Amino acid sequence: MVACGGFLGWRKQILVSGSLRKQFQTGGRALDLLKHQETALGGRPGSAGQKEPWSESSAVAMRRLLASPGIHRGPACYDALSAKLAEKMDFRFVFMNGCGAAASRLALPDTGLISYGEMVAQGQHLTAAVSIPVIGDGETGYGSIPNVKRTVSGYIHSGFAGIVLEDQSSPNACGHTKGRKVISREDAVLRIKAAVDAREESLGDLVIVGRTDARQSVSLDEALWRVQDFASAGADVLFIDALANKSEMQSFCKVAPGVPKMVNILEGGGITPLTSAYMLEEIGFKLVCYPLTLIGVSIRAMQIALHEIKHGRIPLSVDLPTDDVLKDILGFNEYLEEEQRYMVPLSSP
User: Is there a catalytic annotation at residue 174?
Assistant: First the structure.
């Protein structure tokens, strides 16, 4: 049974996030509306006008970020530890992509082998470890339209702030790879509509990122038509994977004005040219994802350390955190402080 204060806080999140979502769909000023909602409902957390304690939902926090000025950079994190490190470095949101999750959880390629259940379980670890929004990779929705709706509902209940849904056919593959195929435009739009419906039916919130892979498998024009239709269907953010040059990026950012655009940058040789965040902001992007950075540097660092150990050497201390730093990152200090609070005092003899 939900306590009165908890219920009011939960209802407030729905009211705020729902109104904010409608503002994005109509191109309005979402941040101004959010401030108005907060004032009417008792103020922001910690403000003098607050009537009861409440915690801003991750989706509301993500919408607030989308409504704020500038471009926002988010690394793709593959487990709870990498997400926690990103939060400690003051990133304001992160992604959890299928490639990193499949690699870290299964040691397998991102070729449709990781399941919905495994992605939800991995996501629960990430969202529990951090307080910043986490956008999860929803792949193709893991099946038919009912599967898409189940995926959206499951991601909401797992604490994700957003979901990326793509129009690849099954089995899907990691972005910037050859041989990808997409479903029809009509079916792709239905996926987005189903996701929007599932969000409304869940009484929760989730930022829906509509992604198309049609640029490589069909044409740029087809990709542009698709994201326009995704916006009309209710997608909150638009994403065309594997744009080939600055001109294509500019064409994309002119579609559906007022709907935030996302791009990903692959340092290891992806199709999209390496472009600074400042240049991407000038082009018109709101979000930039780095899908392979953390998993790539982690693999390389482990290979180097393993090579040293195998050959009888100790890895260089400069490459390793000190014991104190490691304890702080992993939460040992917080654990000991918490333990101390509940220790029973020793009785006098």
Answer: yes
273 vs 310: CA distance, rounded Å: 37
Instruction: Please state, in angstroms and rounded to a whole number, the distance separating the CA atoms of residues 34 and 38.
Output: 6
Regarding pTM above 0.70, the answer is yes
Q: Closest by alpha carbon to 271, among 323, 205, 213, 186? A: 213
Q: Distance (Å, rounded) from C-alpha 208 to C-alpha 222?
A: 20
With pLDDT > 70 as the criterion, what percentage of the chain qualifies?
A: 82
For 160, the token pair is 């994700």
Among residues 4, 77, 99, 174, the one annotated as catalytic is: 174
Tokens 């916006």 map to which residue? 231
Alpha-carbon distance of 95 to 198, in angstroms, equals 21
Q: How many CA atoms lie within 13 A of 265 on its CB side?
A: 19
- Measured CA to CA, the distance from residue 113 to residue 115 in angstroms comes to 6
Q: Which structure tokens are listed for 329? A: 């990152």
The amino acid at 148: V
* Residue pLDDT, tens place only, 224-270: 999 999 999 999 999 999 999 999 999 999 999 999 999 999 987 78
